Amino acid sequence: MTDPTTAPTGGGQTAERRSSAGDFSRPAGYGNRPASRTEPANLADILERVLDKGIVIAGDVRVNLLDIELLTIRLRLVVASVDKAREMGIDWWEHDPSLSSSQRDLVEENRRLRQRLGDMQSREHDQLARGPEQAGEEKPRD
Amino acid sequence: MTDADAGAATYAYAVTRGLDASRLDGSPGVSDQPVRAIEHAGFTALVSTVGLDEFGEDALHRNLEDLGWLEATARAHHAVVEKAGAVTPTVPLRLATVYHSDERVRAMLTQQQAPLAEALSRIEGCTEWGIKAYADPESFTAESQADTLAASGSGKAYLQKRRNQHRNREEAGRAATERAEDIHAAFADIAVASRRHPPQSQQLSGHAGWMILNGAYLVDETRTEEIQAMVAEFSEQPGVELELTGPWVPYSFASPDEEP
User: Fold this and answer.
1) Which positions of chain B have pLDDT values less than 50?
2) How many CB atoms lie within 10 A of CB A39?
3) Scanning A18, A105, A129, B73, which has its CA 20 to 30 A from the CA of B147?
4) Nearest CA among B72, B93, B71 for reference residue B84
């Protein structure tokens, strides 16, 4: 069975031309632009690209990329739940100044995240420990 | 210089070639600032003038922690990149690439001439598609659950059952990995280049299935329909769900190699 959300229209000609860039009109002549966007890009996907990808050329203002990597891990946790909550129409925190500001208890948040990461890592460890033959990708099976 | 000086700086979004800057007129960028073009060394850099009180070192550290600020900035950055990418091959820069002046941007364009030219020619005529594949754990383990159900009762049977469960999980993992390889290979075959990003855990993806593939594919624009047909084809196979995102400006292919 074809899932309508994951299977875009095959023809393309009738598919809606749009992108999250909005009303910017495309001139004719630049290639054959893809005709459909399956769904508007969600925040997690945008952050994954603008923070992790793109050409790495140093600017004058130093932003520690290591910091950013930690930050993306943290954000993915947050964003996953933010997007989900919004889908369900829950957005109360956006009207709560104590939550929308950066003055939240970052220390507490950091602690929780570190623990969560630790849990995830140890689970991964367990999995590796359980199946050594699974860890070596190219080992022949016995 | 400290942020308190609140001087001006130049925020750079992307590098293109020969982009008619008037096409971007009136489109605001980060911090609601107008986007302008700097032409130099055969390139066009898209930039905005921003305040160091918002984009200085200390300010960025603070602001990047603020999800509201980050969301607005990331979306604005992405919108400018997309608008440029819709018109001409565009190499996106990372979020928050900030220079002290336009002159410093020109110096960067001169210094980075070779990698920029190389990136621009690599992505010309191509778009990026994201493919995530989720496996339904049950469909990979269901088969073997039958024999574990048969052996129940005694302590010995219990141990046997536990052992089987371990083995089943490993086999399911192996089967899912093989499927991911097949899917990746099929898309990589259509693509000019491909990159695999680390799969997100269930908590991060918010999806009930295992994410077995998080791939990015640089695809010639004339082959878009093949990608879409391939997604539809794989979606008909049981046990795996595919999620297609894009077309993206080729963010994942702006750098020459897999970044560490």
Assistant:
1) 1-4, 143-144, 146, 259-260
2) 14
3) A129
4) B93
- Taking the CB of residue A42, how many other CB atoms lie within 10 A of it? 16
| Helices assigned H by DSSP within B38-127 | 52-55, 57-63, 67-85, 102-111, 113-123
Each residue of A49-65: pLDDT tens digit? 888 787 878 889 987 65
Asked if A24 and B27 come within 8 Å (Cβ–Cβ), the reply is yes
Angle at B11 between CA B74 and CA B194, to 5 degrees: 55
Identify the residue whose tokens are 């996953």.
A80
- Report the SS3 class of residue B251: helix
Q: Which amino acid would we find at residue B234?
A: F
> Does A34 sit within 8 Å of B224, measured CB to CB?
yes
Residue B17 distance to chain A (closest CA, Å): 13
Q: Do A61 and B228 touch (CB under 8 A)?
A: no
Tell me how far the alpha carbon of residue B144 is from its chain's centroid: 36
What is d(CA B122, CA B130) in angstroms, rounded to the nearest whole number? 18
Kindly state whether B71 is in contact with chain A, defined as any CB-CB distance less than 8 angstroms. yes
Note the pLDDT of residue A2.
39
Q: For residue B26, what pLDDT is reported?
A: 63
In this prediction, residue B64 carries a pLDDT of 83
Rounded to a whole number of angstroms, the distance from the CA of A80 to the nearest CA of chain B is 6
pTM, two decimals, is: 0.68
Smallest Cβ distance to A31: which of B69, B125, B225? B125
Q: Are strands B193-196 and B8-16 parallel, antiparallel or unpaired?
A: unpaired
Contacts of B98 (CB under 8 A, 6+ apart): A59, A60, A61, B9, B10, B11, B12, B50, B55, B60
For residues B212 and B178, the answer to whether their CB atoms sit within 8 Å is: no
Pairing of strands B43-51, B8-16: antiparallel
CB B198 within 8 A of CB B219: no
Q: What pLDDT digit, counting tens, does each position of A116-137 carry?
A: 777 777 776 766 666 544 444 4
> Residue A132's pLDDT is what?
46
The label of the residue with tokens 């909005």 reads A22
Identity of residue A7 = A
